[in-house]
Specification:
Elements: H1 2-16, H2 20-39, H3 50-62, H4 67-86, H5 113-126, H6 132-147, H7 151-155, E1 162-163, E2 168-172, E3 178-182, H8 185-202, H9 222-234, H10 244-256, H11 261-268, H12 273-276, H13 278-294
Antiparallel strand pairs: 1-2, 2-3
Helix pairs in contact: 1-2, 2-4, 3-4, 5-6, 6-8, 6-10, 10-13
């Protein structure tokens, strides 16, 4: 089983084009299955069958896992058994007989325009020439909100990814897919200030072409951005939330302002329009709330 998982990891990373996070999640789920089988005294791929898979998923459900987590586990095992079956490692593709729980779609957390204005005012005060961190933090938040980019996409940007002539940046999204994403004048000014004033104070031989770097001259990481955004949002009515809240906010505010749904899909890099449509529900909820509060015969 362990040998099969090691080979499958290579298959995922090299052949499927999955994102790093997806590969990590799938392998973590399958490691859990391997541990479950070991507890049952099974260690061979030949021991894997539908009953074991269902028992594993049932045990996971008893631990209170969310439906979305169970759905991901089901997706991981379906992908794994399909691969095993094609290699004649198992007698049947057991994953085909799994019924995955439908993951409930919670409405995304959206930061109000007023809260965002307060955040940008706060960051602007700190963005002084003698405070490179403050200048970088303003550029980070401006870019996240302006572009709706994922935090992993943001930290992966290089200097050459930015086209100042057209106010667009080249983003490498899930599955290695590139897309061009526009950004506005405030983000452009914050970014230009970072490149002109602050980045040179941190840059060294290890910086390379990384757009956003830390005080050691290294490319900033996802955790650093997450910590920054979470701390900023914690001081607003939105409450603690990660960088994805800025992505949700960008999409919702664009739709509220009349942007075309397919244009927002392209901006966010969603493969399916259905994924983008959840933001229309947020806008409808706001419309309903405003109606209830304002209409005399609501």
């Amino acid at each position: 089983m362990r040998n099969a998982l090691a080979a499958y990891a290579v298959h995922l990373e090299a052949g499927r084009g999955y994102s790093v996070n997806t590969v990590k999640s799938y392998l973590s789920d399958l490691e859990s299955l391997a541990e479950f089988m070991a507890q049952q005294k099974f260690d061979s791929i030949a021991d894997l069958n539908l009953e074991i898979i269902r028992d594993w998923l049932w045990e996971a459900s008893q631990k209170g896992l969310a439906k979305s987590s169970l759905a991901r586990k089901s997706a991981a095992i379906r992908s794994f058994t399909s691969w095993l079956f094609k290699l004649d490692q198992i007698e049947a593709d057991y994953g085909l007989r799994l019924r995955s729980p439908k993951a409930g779609r919670a409405l995304p957390k959206v930061v109000s325009r007023e809260s965002l204005a307060q955040i940008f005012d706060h960051l602007a005060v700190l963005a002084l020439d003698n405070n490179p961190n403050g200048i970088r933090d303003l550029a980070v938040v401006e870019l996240l909100y302006a572009s709706g980019a994922r935090v992993s996409e943001l930290v992966g940007l290089d200097i050459e990814s930015i086209d100042f002539d057209r106010n667009v940046m080249r983003v490498l999204g899930k599955g290695g897919k590139e897309r061009m994403v526009p950004f506005g004048q405030p983000a452009r000014e914050a970014l230009a200030n970072w490149l002109r004033v602050a980045r040179p104070q941190y840059a060294n031989d290890s910086s390379g072409q990384a757009l956003l770097i830390n005080s050691r001259g290294q490319r900033i990481g996802v955790r650093q951005v997450y910590s920054l955004v979470s701390k900023l949002l914690e001081a607003t009515p939105t409450g603690a939330a990660g960088p994805h809240a800025l992505r949700h906010s960008a999409a919702t505010h664009l739709l509220d302002g009349g942007a075309d749904l397919r244009a927002v899909q392209e901006l966010l890099g969603h493969a399916s329009l259905g994924t983008t449509q959840i933001y229309t529900h947020v806008s409808i909820d706001r419309l309903r709330e405003g109606y209830q509060n304002a209409h005399p015969r609501a």
